[in-house]
Amino acid sequence: MAVVEIVSFGYLHDAPPAAHLTIDLRHHFRDPHVSPELRYMTANDEPVRTAVLNTPGIDALVDATATAVAAFASGPSAGTVTVADGCAGGRHRAPTFARALANRLVAAGHAVVVTHRDIDRPVVQR
After folding, report:
1. Which sign does the torsion angle of CA 46, 52, 57, 59 carry?
2. Cα–Cα distance, 56 to 115 (Å, whole number)
3. CA triplet 117, 53, 48: central angle to 5 degrees?
4. Which of 23, 60, 76, 117 is deepest in the core (most CB within 10 A)?
5. What is the DSSP string of the chain?
6. What is the pTM of this model?
7. Can you tell me the distance from the alpha carbon of 5 to that of 57, in angstroms, rounded to the nearest whole number?
8. Backbone dihedral region of 58: left (phi > 0), alpha (psi from -120 to 50 degrees) or beta?
C-alpha cells in the first residue's frame, strides 16, 4: 500500500498545499468557530471533534475520500498520495476531518502521516 500524507490547513492563513486531492470543508459543513464556547478550542478538544463529526455529510465525505485515496494508491505509479483538507482557519473542521480520514485509511492498511499546518495558529477574527 502507498504511504498517504494528509495535511490539514486553513485557507485564511496561506494557500492550500500541493496535493493529489484537496478537500474544501468551508462551505458545506458546520463551523465550530461560530460557537463562542468552541471558538478558541481546536480539534485537540473533544467538544470540537464531536461537533464536526456529528455534522451531516462528514462521514460520507471521509468514506468517499478514502475510496479516492485507494484509487490513487492502486495506480501503476507507486508513491505517496497527498490529501490536503482545509477549512477557514485550520483549527476545527480540517484537523478533525484529517484525523477521521487517517483512522479510516490506517484501518484499511495504509501507512499514514498527518500534519496539521495551522492548528496552532491564532484564531482568525472574522
Report:
1. negative
2. 25
3. 60
4. 23
5. --EEEEEEEETTTSPPPP-SEEEE-TTTS--GGGSHHHHT--TTSHHHHHHHHTSTTHHHHHHHHHHHHHHHHTSSS-S-EEEEEEESSSSSHHHHHHHHHHHHHHHTT-EEEEEESSTTSPPPP-
6. 0.95
7. 23
8. alpha
For cell 508513491, the residue is 79
How is residue 24 written as a grid cell?
474544501
> Residue 34 burial by CB count (10 A; 0-12/13-18/19+): exposed, middle or buried?
exposed
Give the model confidence (pLDDT) of 6-42 as tens digits: 999 999 999 999 999 999 999 988 888 889 999 999 9
Amino acid identity, position 61? L
Q: Which three cell numbers stand for residue 90?
A: 485550520
The residue with cell 461537533 is 51
Give per-residue pLDDT as tens, 40-88: 999 999 999 999 999 999 999 999 999 999 999 998 887 899 999 999 9
